[in-house]
Design brief:
TIM Barrel, about 10% strand, NODB_dom, hydrolase, EC 3.5.1.41, chitin deacetylase activity, metal ion binding
């Protein structure tokens, strides 16, 4: 194995079978974007590939003002790093806030649109053809941005305060989790599952995706999926982009993973409670105005956060006394599936079984 400080070159012999394991057991079991088997030559994916650490100490896209609500960088992962992921990545532990890019054989980088310009948050391109939600509130046909019933949803967890929300919430909801928090608080993640709530991806480390390279976007998504799979034995279907940062380039990459974006039409801006830019009463008054403007129909998707005591207080007040408990998960809003795949056996056992039965001459995506 050739190895430099920031690059890894896994042995070529195992790459074909491990790529198949990854595809079959981690990512694309029931891809909604392909109805036919896709075959690749036996040497495809068996060439030496490099796993690139994008930046170990990068702060360009992760400043204090852009941190996830309640983020604590001093807490380490407690979810064990699974053997199947170590075998595939040749790494031994969960990454920090900047995950390494791991190339995947089913992603053709040349097919990712290059006509959508990279842009920083707030620096919107003049051309609207890229369908940016953060810039122009543009939504694609497969984006979810509202709901037949006014429903809450929560970003940036799991966190220690998520448990108080779980103990008091009286309706199903959707939690969009950060991979880096999933592996820090795996038991809380499992409590969300046990309560019957839906869990979606919110990336690994809460980056503003339109400002990233294709490789960085893929890293944010793949590590989030691996964290959820290792912890919850499932592969997510639903995805919420941090800061609403999504355009057609980001959507193209999401669809390769079988993910579908969930946006919102009502934002509480509850994170502003933490720097006193907003009060609880302002949020409650706005929520009542949403109800009044909808003619009492109570429809829409609300964005909130489950990462601080004050945001939990607001969430429970909205649920108990303003919105009510007749709410839906993101999947229920569109009568969709909850997950791409759930596993009834341990992931490592499943991967071992897949390794025995793979045909190294072909990669099948069904």
């Amino acid at each position: 194995m050739n190895k430099t400080k920031n690059k890894y070159h896994p042995p070529s012999r195992i790459m074909g079978s491990l790529a198949i394991i990854l595809l079959n057991s981690l990512l694309l079991f029931h891809s909604v974007y392909s109805s036919h088997a896709i075959s690749q030559p036996s040497d495809h994916g068996k060439q030496n590939r490099e796993i690139v650490v994008i930046s170990k100490d990068s702060t360009k896209h992760f400043k204090d003002s852009m941190s996830p609500v309640g983020y604590d960088g001093s807490i380490s992962a407690t979810q064990p790093f699974p053997e199947w992921l170590a075998d595939f990545t040749y790494l031994k532990e969960w990454p920090g806030i900047d995950p390494p890019y791991v190339p995947l054989s089913f992603i053709d980088m040349n097919q990712i649109p290059n006509s959508v310009p990279i842009h920083e948050m707030g620096a919107c391109p003049g051309d609207r053809t890229g369908c940016s939600f953060d810039c122009h509130k543009c939504v694609a046909q497969d984006d979810i941005y509202t709901c037949p019933k006014l429903s809450q949803s929560f970003d940036d967890g799991p966190s220690p305060v998520t448990t108080r929300l779980l103990d008091n919430l009286q309706h199903p909801t959707t939690f969009f989790t950060l991979g880096i928090n999933v592996v820090k608080y795996p038991e809380i993640y499992k409590q969300i599952q046990a309560k019957g709530h839906l869990i979606g991806s919110h990336t690994w480390g809460h980056k503003f995706l339109p400002s990233l390279t294709n490789e960085q976007i893929i890293a944010e998504i793949e590590w989030s999926i691996w964290a959820m799979n290792a912890t919850g034995n499932h592969i997510p279907k639903w995805f919420r982009p941090p800061y609403g940062g999504i355009d057609n380039r980001v959507r193209h990459i999401l669809r390769l993973f079988g993910l579908q974006a969930v946006l919102w039409d009502y934002d509480t801006y509850d994170w502003q409670l933490l720097n006193n830019q907003r009060t609880e009463q302002q949020i409650f008054d706005e929520a009542r105005s949403w109800l009044a403007s909808s003619g009492g129909q109570k429809r829409g998707m609300i964005l909130e956060h489950d990462a601080h005591d004050r945001t939990i207080d607001v969430a429970l007040e909205l649920s108990n006394n303003i919105i009510g408990h007749d709410q839906l998960t993101a999947a229920q809003c569109v009568n969709g599936v909850e997950y791409i795949k759930t596993f009834g056996v341990d992931n490592e056992e499943y991967a071992a079984a897949a390794a025995v039965n793979v045909n190294e001459n072909f990669i099948y995506v069904s």
